[in-house]
Amino acid sequence: MRKTRASRLVVDLLQTYAKPFSLQELHDRVREQLPRTAFSTIYRVVCGICGRSVDIEDADLGFSEQRIRAATGFLVNYHSIELEGICPSCQRSGSGE
After folding, report:
1. What predicted TM-score, i.e. pTM, was given to this entire model?
2. Strand partners, 82
3. Sheet of 44-47, strands arranged across
4. Which residue of 41, 62, 64, 65 has the smallest Cβ count within 10 Å?
5. What SS3 class is residue 44?
6. Domain ranges of the chain
7. What distance in Å separates the CA atoms of residue 80 and residue 20, rounded to the nearest whole number?
8. Which CA distances in Å does 1 have to 10, 20, 73?
9. Residue 76 — left, alpha, or beta (φ > 0 → left; ψ -120 to 50 → alpha)?
């Protein structure tokens, strides 16, 4: 993850609060301190069993608003990607089976 103010704030929020956030809740909390933060800045994959989350980069998803615009002519104003799976720890413990 790039070391931006928004990414550091995301990490701080995730470490501070015990309950998992939805992507929208996390974005709302980030915007309280950094109002110009784009929703597309925040991507996470969340364990559906324990709630553990990991931040991921745009490049990890192969997503590019510029490529979408070039291919379709659309200027993307908003997009949302939420990924859910089973984290390595839950996989090892057999919780995901």
Report:
1. 0.51
2. 44
3. 53-55, 44-47, 82-85
4. 62
5. strand
6. 5-88
7. 17
8. 11, 19, 29
9. beta
When pLDDT is averaged across residues 25-37 and rounded to a whole number, the result is 83
Structure-token match 């989350």, residue found: 53
Report the C-alpha gap between 57 and 40 in whole angstroms. Answer: 10
Average pLDDT over the chain reads 77
- CB hemisphere CA count around 57 (13 angstroms): 6
Confidence of residue 91 (pLDDT cuts 50, 70, 90): very high
5-88 has which CATH code? 3.30.1490.190
pLDDT tens for 33-77 read: 888 776 665 677 888 888 887 777 666 666 777 888 898 998 876
d(CA 59, CA 23): 18
